[in-house]
């Protein structure tokens, strides 16, 4: 297999599970050295009370053909983030890709609840986890890329437009990181560094599979609960999109954009692990919105 990221170094912040894990693995499949960061470890346990760990993700990166390096980092703590990038610089001498996928706000989100009735402390914590962490991480990562005059920062979001996402606090986080990608692109462009926002579609994460009572082997049975599940995608789909963006020699032409996994799949000719090419954008327009319109 071609290894277009051989010799390149990536940090996937929030690479424990979900999209972050899929991205880390696919960067590894392209030959990258991938630092997998997060708070969930085999020794310390998981703040999210989930079984996935950064060590497990790093092992999957290695199995895919890359080098996975797990580093426990709390991205709300600037000193820990600074130490991470000092380590990357000392060990690798470069940084080519940063993926900001730190989130952790799902348990804090109350859907379809007016913001004045939403738990304020939880809503504010979502901003700290989902936006402040990204700012802190980019702050310490960008100098390595600016010095090299190359690199890519990827902000993982939800959605490609300004449509409301069902909760003010959730909507604010996901909209903010899109703007963060755009603003970083503006400031980094003179230095040859790109920044984009990337969204998956209906993501079949570990938690989502459990919620639907299915496994990846029989995931289609989840459509009995929600017909829209048939249009879902694995974390590897958005992972392959990010890996191709990272390997794209013309990435500067896309800097500042919001890129959907399904659009990247069409542009680069990608498929999901099962050979499908799900297109959540078309499904949402043709099925979800059509049904809502009656």
Structural account:
The longest helix has 29 residues, at 120-148. This protein is an alpha/beta fold and 294 residues long. It has a 7-stranded parallel sheet, sandwiched between helices. The model has no long low-confidence stretch (mean pLDDT 96). The protein has one domain (9-293): NAD(P)-binding Rossmann-like Domain (Rossmann fold), CATH 3.40.50.720. Strand 4 (97-100), helix 4 (120-148) and strand 5 (152-156) form a beta-alpha-beta unit. Helix 7 crosses helix 8. It is globular. It contains 9 helices and 7 strands, in the order E-H-E-H-E-H-E-H-E-H-E-H-H-E-H-H.
How would you summarize the topology of this molecule?
Elements: E1 9-13, H1 18-29, E2 33-38, H2 54-64, E3 67-72, H3 78-92, E4 97-100, H4 120-148, E5 152-156, H5 168-188, E6 194-199, H6 206-212, H7 235-247, E7 258-260, H8 261-268, H9 280-293
Parallel strand pairs: 1-2, 1-4, 2-3, 4-5, 5-6, 6-7
Helix pairs in contact: 1-2, 1-7, 3-4, 4-5, 7-8
Number of strands: 7
Quote the average pLDDT.
96
What's the SSE pattern?
EHEHEHEHEHEHHEHH
| Highest-level CATH class | Alpha Beta
Rg (CA only):
18 Å
Number of separate helices: 9
Beta content: 5-15%
Please state the overall shape, judged from the principal axes of the Cα atoms: globular
Number of domains: 1
CATH fold naming: Rossmann fold
Question: Helix proportion of residues, in percent?
Answer: 40-55%
- Please report the distance between the alpha carbons of the first and last residues: 48 Å
Helix-and-strand structural type = alpha/beta
CATH H-level superfamily title: NAD(P)-binding Rossmann-like Domain
CATH architectural designation = 3-Layer(aba) Sandwich
Give the strand line-up of the largest sheet: 3-2-1-4-5-6-7
The main β sheet shows up as: 7 strands, parallel
Point out poorly predicted stretches. Answer: none
């Amino acid at each position: 297999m071609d290894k277009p990221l051989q010799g390149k170094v990536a940090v996937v912040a929030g690479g424990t599970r979900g999209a972050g894990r899929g991205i880390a693995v696919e960067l590894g499949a392209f030959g990258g050295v991938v630092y997998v960061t997060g708070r969930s470890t085999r020794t310390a346990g998981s703040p999210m009370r989930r079984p996935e760990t950064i060590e497990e993700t790093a092992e999957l990166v290695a199995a895919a053909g890359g080098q996975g390096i797990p580093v426990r980092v709390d991205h709300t703590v600037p000193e820990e983030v600074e130490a991470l990038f000092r380590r990357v610089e000392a060990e690798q001498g470069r940084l080519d890709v940063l993926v900001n996928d730190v989130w952790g706000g799902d348990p804090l989100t109350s859907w379809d609840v007016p913001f004045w009735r939403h738990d304020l402390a939880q809503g504010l914590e979502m901003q700290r986890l989902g936006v402040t962490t990204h700012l802190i991480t980019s702050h310490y990562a960008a100098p390595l890329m600016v010095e090299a005059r190359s690199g890519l920062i990827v902000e993982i979001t939800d959605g490609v437009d300004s449509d409301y996402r069902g909760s003010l606090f959730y909507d604010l986080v996901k909209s903010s990181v899109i703007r963060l990608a755009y603003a970083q692109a503006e400031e980094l462009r003179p230095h040859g560094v790109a920044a984009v926002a990337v969204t998956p579609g209906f993501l079949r994460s570990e938690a989502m599979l459990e919620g639907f009572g299915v496994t990846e082997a029989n995931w289609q049975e989840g459509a009995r609960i929600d017909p829209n599940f048939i249009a879902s995608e694995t974390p590897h789909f958005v992972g392959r999109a990010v890996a191709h963006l990272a390997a794209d020699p013309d990435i500067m032409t896309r800097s500042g954009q919001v890129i959907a996994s399904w659009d990247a799949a069409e542009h680069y000719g990608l498929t999901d692990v099962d050979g499908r090419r799900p297109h959540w954008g078309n499904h949402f327009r043709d099925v979800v919105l059509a049904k809502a319109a009656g």
